[in-house]
User: Fold this.
Amino acid sequence: MVIRANAGDFIVVDFENKLDRPASIHIQNVRYDVLDSDGAAVGFNPDTTTLNRKRYFWYADREGIFLFHDMADPRSGEDATNVHGLFGALIVEPVGASWTDPVNGEELKSGCYADIHHPAMPDFREYVLIFHDEPEIKDRNGNTPINPETGQPESTMPINYRAEPMRNRHPDCPGCAGEEVSLSSWAFGDPATPILRAYVGDPAKIRLIHGGVKETHVFHLHNHQWLLEPNDPKSTIIDSISFSPQQCMTIEPLFGAGSLNGCIGDVIWHCHLYPHFGEGMWGLWRILDRYEDGTRPYPDGTIPQKLMPLPDRPHPPLPDGLHPGFPRFVAGIPGQKAFKPPLGIIGQEARLPTPLEQANFAENAVPGALYSVPFPPDAPLKVFEIAAIQVPIVYNRQGWHDPEGRIFVLKEDKEAVLRGEKEPEPFVIRANVGDCIEIRLTNELPLEIGGNAFQLRTRTTEAGFHIHLVKFDTISADGSANG
Ligand SMILES: [Cu+2]
Assistant:
């Protein structure tokens, strides 16, 4: 549950407990009387948890994110309430702000996704994302979910009471091999996890919350950055941040949805701890180029909800025959592996753009930057010819080694590395601020890895080159297959 108030509001919460155990609402960081509204039974205070009804008083003295949860049972285990989801947040907006439902523009009583309006400040999209610990989720038959590859039980890592683990997106589609398709909506449909939506350029605030009590997560958002210290324009610019149990922070992506280069498409966000990512902790930010009226199906037949334009911004252009709006101009076949983007690929999967793709290219489009061009036309060009290769990596004089080391190398160094004349090292390249960088990647990896006591034999037919913090075109250069 996410509720909102304005700074300066006095808030009365009438809490009714219908559980068969004491419960409460304990809020963090707003002002309240600890003797009456702490929602806990602490020290010599009265017990402010309840089996029936309790009224709590809060004073929202400033803007921000204020997590609340049950403090009658603060334990972390399955016997307690936190891991089962008994938490939420109060978001305090500026004085004078109002909020509406992004789907229909109507008044919003509660909800994770809101459009925030203000008479003197820019409107923005507000997305509240509450990350969890790992609840003991059962499958539809009441059993602990099993990873189909390992045969072992596996955890589930939710956001906003949803999770999209890779085990449910197991490659059985034509042409699919392994992990590289698990994030693809072409192969498996959209994930159950939040799909945040905006028109390109919309200002946005992600209200990032850790509702759990045990584990740390790392929030990472592709192709967007934000200031580590929002009120300091000289602050470090980041695109990932660790956050621990009960921490809350506002992420305000610079330049809004689509970042500096106005990219459209599906921007993935996820926990950077890979086990969490693989066990469900990811979602998409769908950045739209055309008005979405809630009637027009995606390629797989699902009909997305309407998205109200922010009223203080220019109305997004209406779709037409050649510009049906993302993702409808992207070539693909639902139920199958996503196509590679046109023009940028040499070899078996090379293809020319369809007329629809061509019509949606940005002005000055080049292979690898088709739908948004992240550099000015006069930017100096640096080209790197790179290969991904397998080579043993020896870690020390005692000969501890990884027989299946996998590294990027400059093509001109490849033979020397493979012959053992040049030691493998992490691949580091350099450029100057303002350069346009063209990466030409050749995948020379073996088609499989493992097949021993420690690693299942796994197909690894695909490789990508995903970069952080610099600008690129999300649809054609993310180095992944998202959305
Ligand atoms: Cu995590």
User: Anything to note?
Assistant: The pocket of copper (II) ion is lined by residues 217, 271, 273, 276, 281 (CB under 6 Å). The chain has five helices and 25 strands. The two ends are 27 Å apart (CA to CA).
